[in-house]
Amino acid sequence: MWEYTDKVQQHFLNPHNVGELEKPSGTGDVGSLACGDALKLTIKVDDNEIITDAKFKTFGCASAIASSSVLTEIVKGMTIDEAAKLTNEDIAGALGGLPKEKMHCSVMGREALEAAIADYRGVILPMAEGEVVCECFGVTDLEIIRAIKESELRSVEEITNFTKAGGGCGKCEDRLREILQQTVEGLAADKIKPHKDKRMTTLQKIKKIEDVLEREIKPTLKKDGGDIELVDVDGDFVTVSLRGACSGCQSSQTTLKEYVEKKLREQVIDTLIVEEDK
């Protein structure tokens, strides 16, 4: 069961600005009823390019309705340029946060706003011109790449949480993993400075990972009856197997991301992505 903040509950139980504006200046339609989430956002813009009103119609869960409701409150009074800079994190933050599994609802809100602004300006959104990766939810590679960069996503599960890609039939998971690896490696390459040493070889990387596992991570996990084994290293992707009390634990993903991955990034390479062997 997800835990919702008081703000989320307030905007879900008593949503603001429900409906559709007559003769709107811009309309943003995103999602699909067939996919389970859909949002129609209409905005009114005055001669000074200030958003004077906004209304929404949403088909979706509590988080989708709350995100849409708070979005209409946020944008009213903003200029078009200010609204164009709004992020999904701003929407989630205005609600006091969203469960990680529901972050795609704030992303849908941001996408609807971008579509409404594009409609007002009479332009085509670049995201719509990308290659469709997830056919179940119509998510493009450009949307996935932006989510990875903006929200620092480091796993396919996180991509699904933020974009819904991979949350249907699952056929696109290999492609999602490929996009994730390419994007993360590209970000790492951008950070490389001329005076830095050349990139570690795979063998050097494996040895360093094994050293950190043996020296720090395993002893800590064993204190709570758990253990960990290195399964594979493929580029920056590190596959491990959790053993003992850690295997099947509800907090296993937290252990992987907040402890194992963090330690390996600190002491090996800061672009490593740790995944559990399945």
Task: Give a written overview of the molecule.
The chain is α+β, with helices and mostly antiparallel strands. The protein folds into three domains: 6-123, Sufe protein. Chain: A; 127-191, BFD-like [2Fe-2S]-binding domain (Arc Repressor Mutant, subunit A), CATH 1.10.10.1100; 202-276, GMP Synthetase, Chain A, domain 3 (2-Layer Sandwich). Helix content is 46%, strand content 18%. The strands form three sheets. Strands 1-2-3 form a three-stranded antiparallel β-sheet. β4 and β5 form a beta hairpin. α1 crosses α2, α4 (88-94) packs across α5 (103-121) and α5 (103-121) packs across α7. It starts with 5 loop residues before the first helix and ends with a strand.
